[in-house]
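Bench log, entry 3. Co-assembly request; chain sequences pasted below exactly as received.
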Amino acid sequence: MKIWKRNWTKEEAELWTKEDVIAALFVALSFVGIIIGTIYSFLLMPIGFITLALSVGIGILGILIIMPKMQSISREYEKKQAKYLEDLEKIARWEEIDG
Amino acid sequence: MDYLLTLDWIWIFTFLFLMIGSGIAFYRLASRSEDDYFLAQRDLPWWLPGISVYATHTATDTAIFVMGVVYLYGVSALWYIFFPVWVAVSAFISTRIFRRSLAGTVAEWQTLRFNGLGAEMLRGWVSGWQFFMAMFILGWVGAAMGKITFFLFGWPQWIGIVGFTSLAGIYVLMAGYWGVMIADFQQGIIAFALILIVSVWAIIGAGGPAEIIQKVQQMNSTYTWTVPDDTSPSDKTYLRITGEEQNQQRQYSMGDPFSIVGPPADTDEVDKATPTYEEMFQGNSSKLEGEEKDQFSKHNTDTDFNIVFPHPGDTLISGESYKIVWNSKESIENQTIEWSNDGGTSWSTVATNVRKGQDWRLSPFKFSGWFTGDFPVMWFLTMLVIATLGGIGIGTNSDWYVEAQRIQSSKTVMEASFTMLAGGAAVLFRNGIWIAAMLGLFTLVPQFADVGQVETMWYTYGFEHLPVGVVGLFVAGIIAIHLSTISTRLNLGAQYATRDLYHHYIKPDASEKNLVWVGRISTLVLMLGSFLYGMMITEITEWLIFAMWIMFAGIWLPSILQVVWWRFNAWGYLSAWIANLVFSWLIVWVLPAYGIIPELTNYMQFWILLALGTLVFIPITLLTKPEPLPHLVKFYVQTRPIGWWGPVKEEAKRQGLI
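Structure output for the full assembly:
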């Protein structure tokens, strides 16, 4: 059994799932660890290097978990982007949008 | 000027040539359309706007601020500057939602989320406010540069404000966002390299990591006390320290008498009493020895504490701040400082829950209590909630407006997320380096009570200790730090004026050429306005911080609700703005000034303003109509917001749109 989902259909990718939450939590934790780890690393404290390495690792893991889903969302969305941009321009100019 | 030799000037002029050259090189590209001038045609790879996020959030006043908070709080200062953590949450939630909307600005996004008159009023208000704030921030950052050039070259402040902002103005006027991006790329790399070099230099200069840690661990306890303004002159003033040992036994010690006088007519003529550098370390006691000390120490009841400063016989001035210094037995916790102005008959509290020694400066989690002291748990939790939950909303803090432009200029939805992650991580990494270096600088001058005396120390250390040639690079780095912030704010403010005000409300049928020129004129107006604010900034700094606080405290929750709750509407958001304008004046200034409520800490102000605002905007939202369902369905299908969107999702499904 896979720990996290790696293949996403476009319908599945559009839903908010546990992968989004895990990625956000992992990277937030990683960010806090990066600042603490950097401080102690520059003070040459061993705990700093350990914290920094773990934080970078957790951050990369978070990104790896979400990457397949983000790729799917991005790919599908780019197909529709031109039409959306056209609509946005019409709104700015107070014109009627088709459809 | 003495700091710079020929090689230094070569570095500085080479750098300036590169910056302005890039502006000229991208002039034609930027002139093609409004999208080019403000979003670089929405086609940038993630690393370019990512570096820009980092460069923009590294301003000339950032090093000054960081030095100030590290001097006061040590490593736990990181919680004052860990705010980019919101980016980690945003990158996977609100960034995705915002990027899919394609809105160039937060104000434009709100007309996609809301509808009708309320949405248009909101767009007009937010864009006007952002133009105004851009001018304010430009003036603020310009004034910081004025201080640095005064220190470096002895130039009058206006030269620092006008000169460097105008340099940024050249390439922003010509190349718009393209110029900002290319210049930020160079500036980000130069600034990062210089921050690394100067900080490592400072750590080594402070004796190296091991000595910094040792010095901090050996320092005496201190507390910065501001003698109350209304204190009557006396020569029988005492300080008393009490503490707990093993949670029960109370120890106390009273210091020797000193004097308090009123403020003199010209404080410059008075030598302010200050502990010596040596007295900051354990093993050094106050100046008096032998019989004289015995005479003054008659009130001491034990030797568990030893008050080192104020020295017996010192004269303190009412209204001034002093660093009380003492040492105590290792086992005594939760120390309380009291003072008496009548020879020890009556006592008033100076501070409670004061942390002993200084080794707490090495820990990010050494709290001073749940609600009391310099670093209460509640303050920390408030910052944590604001930063992490804030990542779900759109426009939850002032940085969001800058990030919005970088998100939309990224090539794809995924690259927009990477833009945010890269920028946020680089800012936090930089903050970590700075904190370590500034802790080292603190150990060189730990005796000052006034942070203003040390807050430019990172800069002065660089100028005074870097070798010839590297000082020029350092100056180039400072110019880079400054120009990246200035150029971003110039282009961002002009974007709100052009896209949201001129294009949408004044001339909807404007040609692309016309819009680019309006962008350039708006940039020029912003620049001129910022000169004015920069010159009067010392009078308005407090107002500016208040203005940013207004936006932040009252709009934080509505900015989240507009993303996560379908029923929240434009009237709710507008009412939150208006209510917050009233409540923040009352809570922050008016009611405390009349003694109706006490002066509240920042985190208490935040929660109270949030609660009061909620009492207004929730009823108004529920008493007014929801946004029209077809409008919400369109928004939902395009952006796929997170949260409670049940009825909208059902309708979208029913129409076969998802």
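Confidence is low (pLDDT under 50) at residues 292-302 of chain B. Chain B touches chain A through 55 residues (CB under 8 Å).
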